Amino acid sequence: xxxxxxxxxxxxxxxxxxxxxxxxxxxxxxxxxxxxxxxxxxxxxxxxxxxxxxxxxxxxxxxxxxxxxxxxxxxxxxxxxxxxxxxxxxxxxxxxxxxxxxxxxxxxxxxxxxxxxxxxxxxxxxxxxxxxxxxxxxxxxxxxxxxxxxxxxxxxxxxxxxxxxxxxxxxxxxxxxxxxxxxxxxxxxxxxxxxxxxxxxxxxxxxxxxxxxxxxxxxxxxxxxxxxxxxxxxxxxxxxxxxxxxxxxxxxxxxxxxxxxxxxxxxxxxxxxxxxxxxxxxxx
Amino acid sequence: xxxxxxxxxxxxxxxxxxxxxxxxxxxxxxxxxxxxxxxxxxxxxxxxxxxxxxxxxxxxxxxxxxxxxxxxxxxxxxxxxxxxxxxxxxxxxxxxxxxxxxxxxxxxxxxxxxxxxxxxxxxxxxxxxxxxxxxxxxxxxxxxxxxxxxxxxxxxxxxxxxxxxxxxxxxxxxxxxxxxxxxxxxxxxxxxxxxxxxxxxxxxxxxxxxxxxxxxxxxxxxxxxxxxxxxxxxxxxxxxxxxxxxxxxxxxxxxxxxxxxxxxxxxxxxxxxxxxxxxxxxxxxxxxxxxxxxxxxxxxxxxxxxxxxxxxxxxxxxxxxxxxxxxxxxxxxxxxxx
Amino acid sequence: xxxxxxxxxxxxxxxxxxxxxxxxxxxxxxxxxxxxxxxxxxxxxxxxxxxxxxxxxxxxxxxxxxxxxxxxxxxxxxxxxxxxxxxxxxxxxxxxxxxxxxxxxxxxxxxxxxxxxxxxxxxxxxxxxxxxxxxxxxxxxxxxxxxxxxxxxxxxxxxxxxxxxxxxxxxxxxxxxxxxxxxxxxxxxxxxxxxxxxxxxxxxxxxxxxxxxxxxxxxxxxxxxxxxxxxxxxxxxxxxxxxxxxxxxxxxxxxxxxxxxxxxxxxxxxxxxxxxxxxxxxxxxxxxxxxxxxxxxxxxxxxxxxxxxxxxxxxxxxxxxxxxxxxxxxxxxxxxxxxxxxxxxxxxxxxxxxxxxxxxxxxxxx
Lengths: 284, 338, 366
Fold this sequence. Notes:
The structure holds three protein chains of three kinds. The longest helix of chain A has 37 residues, at 68-104. By secondary structure, chain A is mainly α. In chain A, helix 2 (14-36) runs antiparallel to helix 11 (248-276). Chain A has one domain (16-255): MetI-like (MetI-like fold), CATH 1.10.3720. Chain A has helices at residues 5-12, 14-36, 68-104, 106-121, 124-134, 141-149, 154-168, 171-178, 183-219, 230-239, 248-276, 278-281. Chain A has twelve helices and no strands. Chain A is globular and about 75 Å long. Chain B has helices spanning 53-60, 87-93, 115-125, 132-145, 162-173, 192-209, 220-226, 244-249, 254-262, 300-304, and strands spanning 9-22, 25-38, 42-46, 68-77, 80-81, 98-101, 180-184, 212-217, 229-234, 237-243, 310-311, 327-328. A nine-stranded mixed sheet of chain C has the order 6-7-8-3-9-10-12-11-13, sandwiched between helices. In chain C, strands 2-1-4-5 form a four-stranded antiparallel sheet. Classes of the chains: A mainly alpha, B alpha/beta, C alpha/beta. At the B-C interface, helix 5, helix 6, helix 7, helix 8 and helix 9 of B face helix 6, helix 7, helix 8, helix 9 and helix 11 of C.
C-alpha cells in the first residue's frame, strides 16, 4: 500500500508540517470550540465568579464572572485576527513600497527608504502606546490590527527592497525588457513569482510580530477593553492579581496559547526557510 | 614538453566508477575508467561538461561526498591502494603525495586571511611543526617557486589579480611537494595572455618538483600546447587515450575527430563544424556506446554493445597491440586486437 | 542615404569620479562604431576582461547612457528617442547574453521566454499562429520543439538554452543582434553550431551582428571587421583578416601570440607564420625577453586593471616598444594600411583618421 502523498511530504519537511499542524489547531480551536462551549459565557457576569475548575466550568471562572474556557474559545480567534490582519496589511504596504523603492531607485527610493529607516528607529511599543492612548473612541479589534500594522510595514519594505535590488540585475529581467515588457509587467510577472517563498516567510514573521505587539499593548490595558482577546485576558488576570493568588487557570491558558502560536509560526518559518535554502540544511 | 622520464608509473587507475545517487536515480558520472600516469609526465583529461573529468579528479583525491559514491575500481599511487585507505590515512596522502588545484581556486581562497597564512595553513595542517622562521622561509620559497614576490604573503586575496590568485592556489597545492599534481581547469577564468604565463609557471613548478601532472580541461587548444598524452572523456568513459601529436593528426574515435574538427582555426573563415545532437544524459545514458546517437559512423553493434578501451595498432606500425600507446573505445577499431 | 542603423560616436563611459566616489574608472574611452542601414555586417569587439567590450555593448543596447559622446539609433540619440521610436529600437536591436542560465526566469518553463515576445510583437496573431511562429523559430536554430518546449531551464543543456535565446532574439524580427560572449559558457562541441546559426541568420535574413568576445579565433571565423579593446580604448580595428594575421598594435600582437593553437607542432608564443612577413618595412615585435616579461608585475593587479589611465597610451606600462611620448598623450587611430587602423606612435607617419573615417572603417565601408 502506498503512503498517501501528504504523509510523504510531511516526513520530508518535519518543521513545516509540525508548524502548520499547530497553527491549524490553534485556528480551529475557536470555531470548533464554539460548538461545544457557549461563548456567551465569556461575557462579564454570565457565571458565578471566582470558581475553581470544575465539571461545569472546565477552566473555572474569573473575578468578573466569565467562564474562562469560553473566554479562550472566544478570544483566540480575535487575537489571531489581529495578528493576521496586521501582518497582511504590513506586508501589503511593504510589498508596494519595497518594489517601488527597489525597482525605480532614485528619489522614490530615497524617500521610501528614508521614511522606513526613520520609523524603524522609533521604539515600537512606545509609539504604539502613544497611538493607542491618543485614540478617543473605544478600541475595537480591527482598530487594534491597524494600530499594530502601522509599525509592521517598515521591515518588510526594507527587506523586499533589498531582494528587488538584487533581482533587478538578473539576466531574465534584462531580457524581459528586450522582449517588450513594461516596468510594471516585469515587477508583476518576472520578479514577484520568484519572491513568493520569501514573501510567505515574511508574512509569517509579520504575523508573529503583530501578535506580540498586540499582546504587549493589551497586557498594558491599551487594547479593546470589551473583547476577550488573549492579551486582554492576561491584563485582567494581572489586574486581579491572579499570579499572587495562584489562580493559574486564569493566566496560564492564554500564555500557553500565545506560546503555541509562536512556536507554530516559528516552525513554519523554519520549514519555509528550509525549502528556500535546501543546501543550508543538508546534514554534513 | 618532455616525454615520460623513466617509464615508471606513479598513478594507476583501474575500472573506476563513481555514481551520484539522486532522487531520480543514479547519475553515472564515471563509468569504468582505466589509465596510468608516468613519472614526470603530463597527461591531459579533456571532455565537455558532464564528461566526468572533474568527478574523476575528485575521486582520485578521495573527495567524493554523498550523494556521490565510488562504486568500484582501484586507484594505485605507487604501491598504495588509495580506495582502501581510512579517512585519516587519505588525508595524510592528500597534498603530501597527491595534490589538487581545484577549479575556481581563485574564488576558494579565504577572503579574510592573508595568502601567506593560507599557504602556511596547509603545511601546518599536515602535522608538521616547523618553527616560525622555518614556516616563513618555506612560504617565501613557495611564493618564489610560483613566481610571486615574497611581499605577496602579506596580501589579501582581493588585492591580487586573477593570475596571481591562481598562483597562490598552486603554491598551496604544492606546499608539501607532492608527486602528482592534478590541475582542474586552472586557467578557465583567466585571459589568454595571463593563461599562458600561468601555465608556464605551472610547468616550471612541475619540473622543479619532478612531479607528474594531470591537466583536466575542455580546451583542446590548451591541451595541444601543454600535455604529452591526452585522454578524451565522454559520458563518464575514456573514449581515447594517446600521445598528443598522434591524437591530433589522426584521431581514432569519431568523437575525438569531430572535436578536433569543430575547433575554430585561423586557417579558414566562415567554416563551422559543430557536433550535432545533444550531450548524453548521465541519468539515462544511451545503450551501447554513449556516443552512438551522434556518431556519423554508427554501426549496428554500437547500439547494443558498449566498446571497451583497447589498444589499437595503427596501420603500418610494427608494434604489437600490447606495446601500442594508443587506445580507443570504439567498434571501428575493436577488431584490431591481435 | 539613410541614417546609420546604430552607431557610437566617441562614446565614453566613466564610472565614479563624482563627489562621493573618488576612484574614476574609464570603462570606455571614445569608441566609435557604425552599423549601416543598407547592408548587414558582422563586427567583432574583442578584448579581455576589463577591456570595456561589455560596457560598449551595453552602450549600444541602450542599457547605459554614455557619459561622453553619443550613441544613436537611426540618427537620433538614444536618450532623445520618442516613445514610438524607442519601442522600435527595443525591437530592432536585440541581444544575446553570455550566461545561458541566468537569462531564464527559473519560475517559468522556457516557453515563457518565447511566448512573451511573440505576444508583445505580434498581438494580432491568434494563439495557434503564435505557436507556429515559435515552433518555426526553434526549428530554424536546429532545435526540436517537442524536446524543448514545456521544459524548465535546468532540464536543458547550455547549448539548447543559448539557442532558445537566439530564437527569442529572432522572434522580434531584429535588424541587429548584439551577442555578448554567446558561446563562452557553452561546451566546445556546441559552440560551432551556435556560431553557425548566427552566421546563417546574418546571411539569410540580413541581420547585422555585433559579436563580443575574448576569443580571437571565433572572432576571425565569424566577422568582417574587428575592434580590439584594451582598458577601455580601441587600440586596433579594421578588416579582421589584416588585424589577426598581421597585427600592428603591440597589444594585438601579444594577444595573437598567446592563443594556444590546437596544433602541437606550433609552439605556443612563437610569432605566427603570417607575421614573419616584413611587409611595408614596419617593425614586427618578436617575443623578446623584455617584451614577454614573465614577472607578475606584468600581470596587473585588480586595481590597476580597472581601465583608463587618463593620460597616455593604455598599453604604455606593458609595451615593449614604449617611448616617452606614449606616457604623455593617447595616440589617435591612424590608417596603417588600407582597411585597418591602430592607435600607436610606432606608426606616426600614417594618416590620422577623423571620427567619420573611423566609423566607416569599423564596418568595412569607406
